[in-house]
Each structure stands twice: as C-alpha cells, then as structure tokens.
Amino acid sequence: MITMSAVYYRPAAALRWLGYKSAERPTERKPAPTPDDIGKRVKKAAEVMWGVGKGAMEDMDKRQAEGVGYTLTDSHVEFASVTGTRRIAYKSIENIFVIENDRYLIEYEGGRHTVKPAAHLVAGRKRVPVGWDRNGTEVPYHLLIEEIAARAGVDIIAA
User: Fold this and answer.
1) Residue 23 DSSP code
2) For a pLDDT cut of 70, what percent of the chain falls above it?
3) Is the CB of residue 93 less than 8 Å from the CB of residue 79?
4) What is the model's pLDDT at position 66?
5) How far is CA 3 from CA 63, 73, 106, in A?
6) How many C-beta atoms lie closer than 10 Å to residue 92's C-beta?
7) Which helix (H) or strand (E) segment is 146 a member of?
8) Alpha carbons 32 and 148: distance in angstroms, whole number
9) Closest by CA position to 17, among listed 130, 116, 106, 128
10) Which terminus of the chain is less hemmed in, N or C, by CB atoms within 10 Å?
11) What is the largest CA-CA distance in the chain?
12) pLDDT in tens, 100-124
C-alpha cells in the first residue's frame, strides 16, 4: 500500500490584512489624584481599561483565526482549533452539506463539524472567503472541503 504524506491546511496569509494589533497597550503612571481631578482620572482609567479590553479581544480573534487548521492523512482528518484537536476517520463521514455564508457541515458517526472561513475579503458587493495555505501554497477556500469529500468518498450536497 502506498501512503501519502500529510497535507496541512492553515488560514492563508491574507489574514495579516485584517490589521490585528498587539494586545499590549501603554499605561501611564501618575501621582494620586487630587479631589479636583478625580472625575478626569476616573474617565481616563475607564478609557485605559477599554483599550486593554479591546486589545484582548483583538488578540483572541487573531488566535482563533490563526489557531484553525486541518491535517489530512491517509485515513483521517484532524480539525485543530483553539479548544483542541478532533480526529475523524474518512470512513465515518456520512454527509457534507453546503450551508449559508460559505460554510460546510460535515456529518460523521457521532457528531458534526462546521468548516467556515477564517475571514472574508469584501470589495463593493463582492464577498469572498479567504483561502487556505495548503502545504505552503495558497489555494481557494473550497479546495479543503472538496479534498475531504474526495477522500471520504461522499458528495457535497447543496442545501
């Protein structure tokens, strides 16, 4: 039996265009406030906390987008996310459905998994999902699901 090396799918480098910023925000050290400027200090503290919170949310979004990945082997597909990795044998995949917003639903024995784009690029009325980096080469978004369907021997069903 001939075995192939694993194929790795990761979000394409286009994610860098989303402008993620570092979660680190500068903080100021100032002397204790006087009764005259307590209102200003409270407002400034709230602004700093808002900035830190925004940065933390941007960092979480970035980690989530970059943490997604798929590894295709001869016998199974691995879905990697921020919460962990799930391994599904191709022979257990029963159906693959196209659902709205460029998403696909994979039904397998014991569960479901939704494949969705890490981001979309929008130009005017055109909205296109960001593709994948497949072993170092950028490929269209739909190629991943087509390859999973081919390896599993199932058709992709339009809803």
Assistant:
1) S
2) 66
3) no
4) 57
5) 32, 9, 24
6) 13
7) helix 142-152
8) 61
9) 130
10) N
11) 81
12) 989 999 999 999 999 999 888 888 9
